[in-house]
User: Fold these one by one.
Assistant:
Number 1:
Amino acid sequence: MKKIIYGFSIFAFSLLMLIEPVIAASLQFDRNFIYALLITLVPGVELRGSIPLVLLAYKQGLWSVVVITLLNIIITPLVFIFWYLFLKIAEHVSFLKRFTNFYLKNLQKRSQKTIDKFGFLGLLIFVAIPLPGTGAYSGALIAEIFGMNKMKAFISITIGIIIASLIVTLAILGIIPLKII
């Protein structure tokens, strides 16, 4: 476990060093972009909510999509690391315990068939679907629920995040037709 945490820490630090110039440039813009980054951190919303916000409402460039995507990728190892801490806290707070149990049962029910049939590819597909509740947080929790290898799960989730980001961006730009029933 220590090796995994160490590996994720090295990866996250390296990723931050690579995107630091982009983040620094983004911070020179208005604070709306910071709000969008905070929305990216909200479970269930993540990049599916923040990409339309930065492109449509805040009129930011495509660089903002890259930053949001990278931030969403960084969430995954943090969920792996802090999940057990959250469960320990939730055990002592009845509302959190009920909510966590409900959420995990629902998540397992929604993902069971896909994961059983396709394994890590199923995890990638689940995360890549650009719907609320199918992002990095859910993907990491699914990997925990099904006892998947964390490094392979991280790779699957990362690819799924990139695909979801592309789908949402292309839909917002009108390149992919967005059909709302």
Number 2:
Amino acid sequence: MAHDDNSTRGFGSLLSAFLLGATAGAAVALLTAPRSGRDTREQLKSATLDLKKKMGRVPEAMEEAGEEAVEIGAKAYERARDGING
């Protein structure tokens, strides 16, 4: 089972790196856009709050995907076992 744990951690790291890159890219785009300082700060605050909401949903989505994968794996195991014993 250690392999599964490593795969989960690897996916989590990949997802974190992707989100960090997306955030950095958005921040650079906002900071280099021709806007006033006040508009830029408001837009950064809005983008940060939006990202915070989205990140809050990630663990739940990953848990649901994991549960679904376990169910699919259990069904595949049962079919294979029935095929061997059948």
Number 3:
Amino acid sequence: MKKLFIIISSLLFCLTVTSCSEEKVAETPKVNAKGSKADTYKNWHDVCLKGKVDDIDKQIAKFEARLKEDPNDNLAKVYLGSSQALKAKYSKWPLTKLKCLREGEKSLDSAVEQAPDDARVRMVRAIAGYKVPKRFERRPTSLLDFEYLIPIAKDPKGRLKKNECQVILYYAHLAYGEDGRDSAERLKKLCHNLDPNSTYGELTK
């Protein structure tokens, strides 16, 4: 009887360990094997742009899971920050809005601080900062990011994809225009010429 009890206990322990192990794997979202990490994170972030807070929370959980797996994944961190800022935008309660915005700012700035020369990280922070209302004083940081990014975006055969260069030039022209900079129209023309038939090409006619 004692031997049987030990065998049953061992089996139960093994089943519990297996179950926990499977649950842990299921909790960590996988990067799309058919695309790059940047493409996967952009897809998660695109869900947040639709403005449904419950869906934004799910994407935030995915980014947090990636960072738990790799705390040095600064691309995941900067997209997390932008997602948190979007939750601030679409949440109803003022205190929730402010809390999420501050969390987003912390994630955005931490990512760039750790990876200042990663153009994609800077791109996400630049655009997120531009979209935050001016009263929260994120625009100066956004403009600094665009100043870093514009020379990179002018070379579509460089380290970024053509559509990434175009989105940088598009938002840079908006930010520069609102800041009263003469180069805004030149950036608009550069954006259009990269791909006149794309979404941003159509927006910059």
